[in-house]
Structure formats: C-alpha cells, structure tokens
Amino acid sequence: MHRFYCPQADFVSQVVAITDPHEIHHIKDVLRLRKGAEVGVFNGKGGEALATIEDVLENAVRMKVKSVRQKGREGKPRIILACAVPKKAKFEFILEKATELGVDVLVPLKTKRTQVIFTEDKQRAKQERFQKVVLNAAKQCGRADIPRMSPMTPMAEALKGLDPQGLAVIPSLNGHNPPIREVLNLHQKPVSVTFLIGPEGDFTPNEVALAKQHGCIPVSLGPTVLKVDTAALAVLALANFYWD
Asked: What is the pLDDT of residues 215-231, one digit of tens each?
C-alpha cells in the first residue's frame, strides 16, 4: 500500500488534506491515484491511518480516514546514533538503514579524523538532503514517526548534550574494552542509549578520554576492524535485539 506523509494530520477529524506539492505530484502524476484509492497516511509523530482518497485537486488531496493507529514506544529506550560522516554516499546509506532499524535521533558527528566537513551553505543543502533520505526511508519501512536529523555537530558539543540519565557507549579500538554485549546486559532498561561511532582511523585517544569524562563507556565490537557503516548498523541491530 502506498503511504504518504502529512505532518499536520492529528487524525481527530475524519478528513485529512495533503497540501505538500511533492506529495500531491507523487499522488496525481506519478502514481496516478484517483478517488476511491486506499492509502496509508502518517504524521511523523507516531500517528497513522488507513484512508480513502476523496478528491484530487490542484493544490490538495483530500482523504477520508477509515481507521487510526497510534504507535507507542512501549517502554523502549530512545536510540541516538552519533556517527562520524564517512566519504562518498555511505552516510546516506547509514541514514536509510538506521531509520529502518528504528533509530530516534541521528547526529552527523565531526571528529578530529572526520574527512568530510561541510561549509555553512553546503550544510543547509546537505541537511535538506539528509532529511529527505530519512523521510523516504520512514515511508518505505512503515514507520509512523520520523527520526530527528541534527546538523553536523562537533564531538565535544555532542558529548555535552548527552542524556545524563541515559546510557552512552563508544566503540573504539583504543585499549582493552569489554564486548558491547556485556555492557548492554548490565543496562536492561535505560531511558536512552547513545551510540558514538567514529571515523575511518577511529576516535583519537583524547576523544575517547573526553567521552569517558562525560560518562561514555568504551566497548569492543569484536576482533575485526569495522567500517563506519558496518559499525553503525551493527550497534542498531543489537539495540533491536535487546529492546524490540
């Protein structure tokens, strides 16, 4: 079933109107949906509905709500992925798959060894692009909420913003760190979990030391050296295993 994003929908009313030009174009001109077509609508905040198209107008598509479902967290921790930006298109791949794996917040991380740095103008364009990738992934995988996409954040700033009540782990090759499973086993019901994923070449020893000062726990992801995208998706898959 085709799904469409309508951020203003509260699903209290029996009628939903999609007014975003891109969504209207997709409905009218790409999919050529007409009155009577059954579709899914979600608001990006956990609400979604089964609806039937009533009118396809030039500047709006009106739909009648048939049934509503609210997706709750059900005691799951809030999952934050703070990930150094790798080269090429790998970061968009990470965003897409992280969304599919249920991440709540995505933070592009600027570290000492991060090789991809955005200028202010490029940052705005990249932010819009990243948000689009996340939205499309949410549509495709059936999520009713959309992960929050943060701007590129220096590591020191990201550490200051850590949830003091949550768990934060930093996979690193520096030192003899416990396996990540041992740390997760000791924290069965955290309010939030932040995973800090380093760049090619890993975090510097000073960055790991700074992270420890802010309460992060260094962990190992195994005996092999993982690429950024592999490490990011591995920790999110583990989060699903522990808290799904």
From this structure: 999 999 999 999 999 99
